[in-house]
Automatic annotation (TrEMBL), chain A:
Coiled coil: none
Superkingdom, taxonomy of origin: Eukaryota
Organism of this sequence: Catharus ustulatus (Russet-backed thrush)
UniProt-listed InterPro entries: OSCP1
GO cellular component, one term: cytoplasm
Name of a matching Pfam family: Oscp1
Record-given protein name: Organic solute carrier partner 1
PANTHER family according to UniProt: OXIDORED-NITRO DOMAIN-CONTAINING PROTEIN, PROTEIN OSCP1
From TrEMBL, chain B:
Gene: WDR54
Protein name, as recorded: WD repeat domain 54
One Gene Ontology term from the biological process aspect of the record: cilium assembly
Domain called WD repeat-containing protein 54 beta-propeller: residue spans: 2-319
Any one Gene Ontology cellular component term annotated for this protein: centriole
Repeat (WD) residue spans along the chain: 238-279
Organism: Catharus ustulatus
InterPro entries reported for this sequence: WD40/YVTN_repeat-like_dom_sf (IPR015943), WD40_repeat_dom_sf (IPR036322), WD40_rpt (IPR001680), WDR54_beta_prop (IPR049546), WDR55/POC1 (IPR050505)
Length: 389, 324
């Protein structure tokens, strides 16, 4: 309902994606000297992160994103992240991409639900951006792009009222409704129940500006307080020490949106199997074509602004596995319940010839105009890159 | 506590539970899920109503609220959405009227929607909009000849909730609330008159009730405030919830007040007038905690307030509480 929801949704999901990719790349990386030609190194990891972040914060792309617009379907948004994840030499199979998207969405759903005030979703966004700036701290060019987006966020959102932020939050919650994929990290930390619903604590700090529940004050005709009474409940709250900073730099205080993944804690998801709540999700997935037309317009505009480069050496790239073994990934692909399939939009397969021509033209423009300098060898490619600096 | 299964879970929207209590029959319920209203009738199978008015827009518009409006001659079921106002016969079987909001061609930075529904003055149905305007519809005793009688333009922020007087000695028949916490009191009639305005302090009033000249309002900072409708003075302030209040309801026979919030709690309070001082007072009666759920709807199911029902975000059921 709020036409200002998309930038927050996109940036926070993007932030979670980067946390997960960074963790998986670190987990699978081999020290540079020991690595074979097809194995990940630290240099590769940094390059993948740089490439994706550069693409994500592309100026034209951000301009499109910040235009007031309704949220589009999960299908359409998933297609954008597919493209983003492949903005570099990294390749993900369908099963790994599915798992990545599951983790991203459940993490942000959790953060939105647990925000003490609706306005705190901005602090969550700033936490993600602070971490992104850390990933590319030694690339001033990209850092500039991220700061630009930061400033645009502050400009667009600082003046919004609490009521408008609540509308944004409600719009996000409608987007995440009925998603109950179980994430092992959440289950282990006891922030998610075995039925996929998140744990909502009834103790802790109250939101900034809210009082601890319990006090009743009665006033007389003259507006003077004449009576006080108290009531007790099961909750156990206290006043927080300070408010988080909404400036470009500052202590956000809120921990939601910071990186919860680390190399030693692999993250798995469990498909919750068929249940009543999946029925409404399934209905959305088989939406008729007329709806897809508007989404394709949106994707064309959005992806038209993305500067995606094909990897040197053809389509092979370097595969990242979100699972522990290739067998696990294969098994996940085969056993994913039908209702949870994202049915990613296959743009080339659209029925309308006019629309197909338009999109082919845009996709064509995304092809790299000239070949990359250097040979197809991974090592030489990196040298060429460094020479270019 | 009893649980009634819903076909869909409830969305996180203010006042997201509609209840109709016909005399001597079990109540009917309605809860919004995205673009759909799920109805659990007292008779017949559960029904679903959809938001209307796709047109050139992206997809089916989202619903914001639903409520049964009880008028002396008839009961209508009203739905508000991003596109306009839909009115049905009380069982949801036939659409009686559709009013489209002026929606701009390209989405503007300010969202457009209708929200806030109440029957008023025995003859009207009032619906709020995101522009701050309140639409007053004149409802004929039967048939579809509903007309837009008046547009009340006093609020400058999106309307959140509207409530009509319940009980006697009302100083004003209607109260309207908005995102900035501003409350307006009106007397209903062929032309509505503004009786008074209680300025907001920036904290959203998401839910409001009016009873025997007392306005009870629930706010985004978890507070409930009681105001005297006639003078606009504050009577009581309660630190009721730890998070945003989403729903308030009032039982007119007893003055019981129900509040539900994002903090998972539902509280029952009792309003009264001190016979010696004539001060309006409120006391806490009862609390329920809906574990791991952000409450988005709460309504009494009988005029004395002995039973009540609750909905929550992502919850595919309606929880009904009553005496043991």
């Amino acid at each position: 309902m709020s036409a200002r929801t998309l930038p927050l949704l996109f940036l926070n999901l993007g932030g979670e994606m980067l946390y997960i990719l960074d963790q998986r790349l670190r987990a699978q990386s081999i020290p540079g000297e020991k690595a074979r030609k097809d194995e990940w190194t630290d240099v590769d990891r940094k390059r993948v992160m740089n490439d994706i972040i550069t693409t994500m914060f592309n100026k034209k792309f951000m301009e499109e994103l910040f235009k007031p617009q309704d949220l589009y379907s999960k299908k359409a948004l998933r297609t954008v992240y597919d493209r983003l994840a492949h903005a570099s030499i990294m390749r993900l199979n369908q099963a790994s991409m599915d798992k990545l998207y599951d983790l991203m969405t459940m993490a942000f759903k959790y953060q939105v639900l647990l925000c003490p005030r609706p306005r705190d979703v901005l602090l969550v966004t700033f936490n993600h951006l602070d971490a992104i700036k850390d990933f590319i701290s030694d690339s001033p060019g990209i850092l500039n792009q991220v700061d630009e987006t930061f400033r645009q966020l502050i400009e667009t959102y600082s003046c919004l009222s609490d009521g408008e932020f609540q509308l944004i939050r409600q719009t996000l919650l409608i987007f995440f409704q009925d998603m109950h994929i179980r994430v092992s990290l959440f289950l282990k930390d006891k922030v998610q129940n075995s039925n996929g619903h998140f744990v909502l604590p009834i103790s802790g700090p109250v939101p900034w500006g809210t009082e601890v529940p319990g006090l009743i004050r009665i006033f007389n005709h003259k507006g003077v307080e004449v009576k006080r009474a108290e009531f007790t409940t099961a909750g156990n709250y206290f006043i927080p020490q300070r408010e988080g900073s909404f400036e470009l730099y500052g202590d956000r205080v809120l921990k939601l949106g910071t990186n919860m993944y680390s190399v030693t804690r692999p993250v798995e998801t469990h498909m919750s199997g068929s249940s009543k709540t999946l029925a409404s999700q399934a209905k959305e997935n088989i939406a008729p074509n007329p709806l897809a037309k508007e989404e394709l317009n949106f994707l064309a505009r959005l992806l038209g602004g993305l500067d995606i480069q094909k990897p040197a050496g053809g389509d092979t790239g370097f595969r990242l596995n979100l699972f522990t073994t290739d067998e696990e990934e294969e098994h996940a692909a085969q056993t994913r319940p039908e209702e949870l399939s994202y049915k990613v939009i296959n743009i080339e397969a659209t029925q309308e010839p006019g629309r197909r021509a338009e999109l082919s033209r845009i996709l064509g423009e995304l092809e790299v105009a000239e070949p990359r300098p250097g040979s197809a060898e991974k090592g030489e490619d990196l040298l060429a890159l460094m020479d270019g600096l | 506590m009893r649980s009634l299964a819903l076909r869909n879970s409830s969305s996180a929207l203010y006042n997201n539970l509609a209840v109709l209590c016909p005399p001597a029959r079990p109540p009917a319920f309605g809860a919004v899920h995205g673009t759909i209203l799920s109805l659990l009738g007292s008779e017949g199978p559960p029904r679903q109503l959809q938001a209307r008015g796709g047109g050139s827009a992206l997809s089916t518009p989202l619903l914001t609220q639903a409520a049964w409006c009880e008028l002396p001659a008839r009961v209508l079921l009203v739905l508000t959405s991003q596109r306009g106002v839909q009115m049905y016969e009380s069982d949801g079987s036939t659409m009686v009227f559709w009013h489209a909001l002026d929606v701009p061609e390209h989405p503007a930075a300010h969202s457009v929607f209708a929200r806030g529904i109440s029957a008023a003055g025995g003859r009207f149905i009032c619906v709020g909009t995101s522009f701050g305007a309140v639409l007053v519809f004149d409802i004929p005793p039967k048939g579809t000849n509903v007309t837009l009688n008046e547009v009340l333009e006093q609020h400058r922020d999106p309307i959140t909730d509207i409530a009509a007087e319940q009980g006697q000695d009302g100083a004003g028949d209607l109260v309207t609330a908005d995102d900035s916490g501003t409350l307006c009191l009106w007397s209903t009639g062929e032309e509505f008159t503004l009786l008074g305005q209680i300025p907001g302090s920036g904290c959203t009033c998401s839910s409001v009730t009016l009873w025997n000249g007392i306005v009870a309002a629930g706010y985004g900072n978890g507070q409930i405030r009681l105001w005297e409708a006639g003078s606009g003075r504050i009577c009581a302030q309660v630190s009721a919830h730890a998070r945003w209040i989403y729903a308030l309801d009032l039982a007119p026979l007893t003055g019981k007040l129900l509040s539900g919030a994002e903090d998972s709690f539902v509280h029952v309070w009792k309003l009264s007038r001190n016979p010696d001082t004539d001060d309006i007072e409120i006391q806490h009666c009862h609390a329920e905690c809906v574990t791991d759920t952000q409450v988005c709807g709460a309504r009494f199911c009988d005029p004395a307030g002995d039973t009540f029902a609750v909905t929550g975000y992502d919850l595919s059921e309606i929880l009904c509480y009553g005496p043991a």
